[in-house]
Amino acid sequence: MASTACFIIVSRNDIPIYEAEVGSAVKKEDAAQQHQFILHAALDVVQDLAWTTSAMFLKAIDRFNDLVVSVYVTAGHILLLICFFQPKGAFNLRCYVLESSLISIPLSLSSCSRVSNCTAPNLGSTDRN
Amino acid sequence: MATMLGQSDPANSPLGLMLLDEITPVVMVLRTPLVEEACLKNGLNLVELLTPFSTFNNIDVPVRTASDQPYRLQKFKLRLFYASDIRQPNLEVAKEQLKEVITHAGEKDFSDLCSDPPQIEDVLSTPESEILPSWFQFFNKELVRSLSFSDHEAFDHPVACLLVVSTKDERPLNRFVDLFNTNQLPFLLNDGVMDPKILKHYLLVHDNQDGSSEKAEKILTEMRSTFGSNDCQLLCINSSQDGLVEHEDNPWAPYKTDASLSQPLGCFLNIDDFNEIKDLMQDFSSKHIIPHMEQKIRVLNQQVSVTRKGFRNQIKNLWWRKGKEDTPDASNGPMYTFSSIESQIRVLGDYAFMLRDYELALSNYRLLSTDYKLDKAWKRCAGVQEMMGLTYFLLDQSRKEAEYCMENAFNTYLKIGSSGQQNATRCGLWWIEMLKTRDQYKEAASVYFRISGEEPLHSAVMLEQASYCYLFSKPPMLHKYGFHLVLSGDHYKKCDQIKHAIRTYRRALSVYKGTMWSYIKDHVHFHIGKWYAFLGMFDVAVPHMLEVLTCGHQSKTTQDLFLREFLQIVQNTGKKFEVLKLQLPAINIPSVKVIFEDNRTYASPAAASVRESMWQSLEEDMIPSLPTIRTNWLESLPKNISKKHKQSNICVTGEAIKVDVEFKNPLQITISISSVSLICELSASSEEMDCDANSSTSELQNDEESGKLTISREQTSNSSFTLSEADFSLGGGERIMVQLTVTPRIEGILKVVGVRWNLSDSVVGFHNFESNLVKKKIAKGRRKAKHSPSDNLKFLVIKSLPKLEGSIHHLPEKVYAGDLRRLVLELRNQSEYPVKNMKMKISSPRFLNVGSWEILNTEFPACLEKKTDPEQRVQANHNKESHTVFLFPEDTLIQGGTPFLWPLWLRAAVPGNIPLYITIYYEMGDISNIMRHRTLRMYHNLQVLSSLDLSFQISPCPSRLKEFLVRMDAVNKTSSEIFQIHQLSSVGHQWKISLLQPVETMLPSELMPGQALSRFFKLENVRKLTTPEDKVSLLAPQEGSDVKLGSEASNEILFDICSSPLADFHICERIHQEGSHQEHPNSVDFILISQPSNDSINTGLPNPPPHLFSHHVCHCRIESTSPIWWLMEGPRTIHHNFSASFCEVKLKMTLYNSSDLSASIFIHTLDSIPSTSQLSEVMAGSPGNQAGWYDTSLLNDIKVTSDVLGMKVGKPPSLDSVSQFIWSGSCSTKVEVEPMSTAVVPLQICVFSPGTYDLSNYALHWNLLSSKDEGSHGKCPGSPYYLTVLQSA
């Protein structure tokens, strides 16, 4: 079965700075927007999770039907979001993400991406359960 | 606060209230038609009439269930149903009903959808109740109700039966019996699911309008004796005769939803009836229902205790059930009758639940759940678990347990397939409420998502509810909120609930507003637009479609789709839209250039794009200094023109202002743009202008603020100015630079506001320049930066002025270096008023020069011929001024469109790209205007290709004193041009050039491409001593000498190099070629004139006008550093008889001082030092001796050797040999030589033996005597002079 994946690098303030559709599946016209929707929605989960764990690679944090979202959170809080079909992706996801994290480092250092107003969430709100 | 309360008392939470409402005892109502008839007089049926009075908020009844401890029940409710309604609702009907509800809600909510979607901040700050559509609750309730009266749950089973008979009925007592005995009873009773022995209550209804209640009393007594005194009651209604009773806070209103009321509800019920009904229901519930339930609980509990409680029973039960395992397994498990212990436990649990003895209920549910599990009666099991969850929740004991039970029940329902789907939904809804009560909105949302199911309408509503859960979660999960709204919208769309789809998408828009996620934004806007269009609301659809127009990131097909859809919608609106800042095509604002002509006019667009500083430096000394001229014409301005207009740019009526705008197509598809024009405002007078401009600008600002569309307005000011229009189509990603013009027709203030265009003939886009910085190309140097950009687009239009138009005829674009041709400058003035005082300045006189008027009518190149009569010569313009400003004759007036011609000379001096700037200054004949002068600026670019490479070498003639040999090397560097060398001229009266050989013997003079050529000439110095006055004009070549070089040149003419234009160009060349060389009197300039050969290969220049080539080489220097020239004269061969005596030879040295100063020359002979002077054949290889021997290379015929050579010191070939001659006479002679004059010094040598001697062992020391300083001095070694002395016979 053909696999498909969408990879987006998101900077602070939820601005997508890089976008790629990878995979061998025949591209559907609305695939791009569907992936964007799913990844955009997953940002909420990332924002919750990223501050509760020290791990950078957060696997399968969100899913929509068959599409699973994983994220690699870089030190500069630039998110590398990937959503792909079926949990067992056709390629080594971690490697791919780590490779691309190297790409994102210059991006995070770039003066073009605003790295100001770093806000940690209210830590008091995490103990509600 | 509410949640705190809810947490402290689950019964007061929304779920608690919901359960209180839904899980209450059911009363089955059986009535005769006459009862119904009596009730309907009030617009209500019997159940409706009684319902408001069956809810008790403060019933305060003591209850004692299983335990001995009584407690008081405050809230209580009965649910009344007709027997015919006690059945499982038809699913299809229920669905239809729900759909109707949703559609209805859609219509209701749609009214406010045309406004802007709310900001996300506003959404977050509004309370939940306002955001949530009110029909959600209704929808959920209906969903729950669609599951009523299921057989596996007991709380919907009727607790009691209310039999109602009217007094008008015949034989009422029989009717009571008949009612219950018909086959109309619900299946629950008939199928054995519940106990048919049900509590019965007999009610006799008497309509007071039918007469007194005496008869009723009589029947009641009969009833009491028949059915028992407690269970019978009489109800008298319709006591009001006129039917005009108005009830404050009509108790029926909340229960009767359909508003089509012909009469007020309960209009025949007066206050007595009202209280009677109230008392009846209170009595019924507190004295009959509740005690009955208590009774039943106690009985059942007793039974359960006996059969199931205790260790023994448990073991027995377990064993017994295991034994039953082999029984065939139905999907719902085995059938349980009302008499089975399981059903009884369930009834016990549900009754306990309804009477709020949750502990008792829970213990029974628990017991039951394991039983059902063992029986694999999954549906029942799930039902029990669901109830356990609710009980846990209401007990507020273990939250985990409650959730676990709900989840378990939910999953179990799902497990049993489609039949459990409905139950799962209900379970989910309760579970969600439970989670919501505990603020677990996120979890609630995921449950909503799980119950969304397959059916689109259902899932749409559930997804929408899920989205609100995300919104209400803390912190709000807006991304999820938006996503689920969009999902929900898609589902709404699937079931044609377009209005709901729009509503959800619009809400989602508030999340996605301003986001950079382009695909999302496009999707949302496009669909909203499309749906609005579907509903025919094209006006509202358009703004959304506009948002997706610039979708460069989308695929080509999508772009095409978006654009097509957009245009279709706009067409459907049936009007043209004006869209501010339409992004299709995009306008590159920084590229906007404004070109206008005030004092400065331009002959071509190219001229306008030249840097202003370039022109300024060119015009610097031509036009009156700017501040002066400015104040001058400002003073003459009318006083009423306010000060701020002084800052405005000035333009002239009838003259176009050009604005260059760059359009770019951001899409990959072709778009067609038409009627591109500027938007301008022109107000005639200054006062008017103020108010006009204010109003119009404010209007524009309004447009900008609201960003709304306005219907195309008429161009009202068409009469006062004209606009150009452009049409073009832009391919994918293309850019195009469009020049738009506005031509004012009347005086006033003109403002360029922006640009407008038609996209595909249906949308008018316009873009204001105001808000952006417009780079003004023609920013004046003196202009300060303080002006706002809008000032740059504001023009003061002054009345029509004469304007010169200029062009140069026959100006080639590409020429070879040296090309000399005549051009004609044509000037025209279309105006009636003349222009005068014209001046012209040309940036590069080396390339372009002004001719004289006369040559206009002569033949070229014949006009350059050397005239025999010197008077006729056109004198070269030696005036220094001529290189800067050329003044046209003072009487020149140009007007009325008649062309004025003036000749120009073009000479391509050096190869390269040569910009030619010409500026013409003129003044107005009519001085009434505020602008008195203008300039016409012309710019041309000339590409000059290299042609002939020319070099000269001049060396002194060894045999003559004032003659030189000139070697000319010429290489044709062109690829195609053939040059016919015509003439070589030397410039200046002190030189005369002539041929070494006669012309006939020379080689052909044609120079083919790539060919090289060398010629030798003789150059003679004819310089005379000049007077100091002449020295001043040293630059000017008055005279020259020419040599014809053409092979067949005998009959050809010579060109005059001393007259204009050759002389003028030569002066320029001299200046340019001067370089670092000092002006040296002994340098010579050459001009080589050649003609293009007739059979030149055509270079692509069609039929070129007659032209010549003149190559100027200046400052060619004689290879000598000394100003003193000398020549040794004397015999070369002498026969002498040495036997008689030694030989005495007389020699003569002629000295010439070529400098302008007198020189003192000192001749020093060197024979005092013994040195060999005898020359042998060995000499050729010898380096020479110390005393000044030199190589006598035959090739070297230089008389005065270079210093480098002079320094070379050799050793004598034979030191032992004795000098064979000596200088006799004085060994040193000193002479004074006047400038430009010669002196002769006699010399003598004595030769002692025959041989050949080189008499070069002498030196000349010269010293120029300058009056100012020491002057220069130097030493020249002697030059070879060979003397052969032979022994005479």
TrEMBL record, chain A:
Q: Which GO terms describe its biological process?
A: endoplasmic reticulum to Golgi vesicle-mediated transport
InterPro entries hit by this protein? Longin-like_dom_sf, Sedlin
Signal sequence, start to end: none
Biological source species: Vitis vinifera (Grape)
Cellular-component GO terms for this entry? cytoplasm; nucleus; TRAPP complex
Question: Do you know which CDD domains this protein is assigned to?
Answer: TRAPPC2_sedlin
Output this protein's name: Trafficking protein particle complex subunit 2
From TrEMBL, chain B:
**Region (Disordered): which ranges?**
691-718
Transmembrane spans: none
- What sequence ranges are listed for the domain TPPC8 first Ig-like? 612-766
Could you tell me which residue ranges the TPPC8 C-terminal Ig-like domain spans? Answer: 1130-1259
Reading the lineage from the top rank, the first entry is Eukaryota
- The molecule here is called Trafficking protein particle complex subunit 8
Native organism is Vitis vinifera
